[in-house]
Specification:
Blueprint lengths: L3 E11 L4 E12 L4 E5 L6 H9 L6 E6 L2 E2 L10 E4 L11 H12 L4 H14 L15 H13 L5 E5 L7 H18 L2 E6 L2 H7 L2 E6 L2 E6 L1 H6 L4 H6 L6 E8 L2 E3 L4 E3 L2 H6 L6 E6 L5 E2 L8 E10 L3 E8 L2 E8 L9 E5 L6 E4 L5 E3 L17
Helix pairs in contact: 2-3, 2-4
Amino acid sequence: MGRLELNGMTKVFDGGSGDIVAVDELDLTVKDGEFLVLVGPSGCGKSTTLRCIAGLESVTDGEIVLDDTPITDNKPKERNMAMVFQNYALYPHMSVRKNIGYGLKITTDLSKSEITERVEDTAELLEIGDLLDKRPSDLSGGQQQRVALGRAIIREPEVFLMDEPLSNLDAKLRTTMRTEIQQLQQDLNVSTVYVTHDQTEAMTMGDRIAILDGGELQQVGEPMECYHEPTNQFVAGFIGSPSMNFLDVERHEEVLEHDRFSYTLPADVAKAIADAPTDLTLGIRPEHITLCDSDRENAVQTEVTVVEPMGELVHIYLDFGDQTLTASVDGGARVQAGDVVSVVFPEDKIHLFDGATGETVKNSTSGRQVPDEQVAPSN
């Protein structure tokens, strides 16, 4: 078992000149065997959340429950969890063998031979059996990461906690290790809470992702659910790369008015959002902006300011007055800086947000309003 519950968990720090709320009444459940990713910008509270779960930080208010047992006041060693840190936290004077087995030596009564057997089995699982007699200084970043994982795995915990474990690796190795961690977690079937600021990691690794901002939970759901059905403008802008474009518009029945264009909504969409505010924000992802003929309905003429060839895709930057929009188009498109092009925002791909609160009014691929239960409650 490894079902983890956070019930109204709050962490407040004394900032000297006033209290700092790092985590604000967080309600979150990690299912048994689930890979849950906590993601958000720097300072959003994700690492503090992880440290509270591990017992490295005390909780100001709320409750942490593991398999129906409250553990809020338990010491870290009493929580049956294993943590992998961003800096690996290996003992430099110890061999790989001793680094992996150290936790068992100080927390169990296993014999030396039993510990040796488990260390060797763990090392073979991680394909570092030939490194057991080396020290951390003799290892590459990827090898050190495997040792840190081995130290966590050998304890056979109910929950893995991982705090940006790949951030110190180069891009290629990070991609490789991302896949290896996913496969390892699936093979071991251990509940895992993984912290990252990288939304690509979140989208590719998590069974579900929880997006935090300012210590508050914004949305929790499957990666593609958060991508296609963000509960608010923050989530829409954070998930996806390049990030979603936003344009302030004013609604006049079926027409959205912007300084540079008028956009006619389909009748069913206009009807569905009839009770929405008149001040809205239109959101469109770069990959959904389409080059088109100038006579197409809702086409907008604009100048290309910058072109970034990416191979299969080309990122083009479009002049929209006081802001620039990003579009991702086919790599074969013949577009140069200075060209005047026509683009369209397909009706089934636009998002609409309340201009004042940022809450979602309409998501892509649907003309319905978002049900209340999909919108994260405000604290």
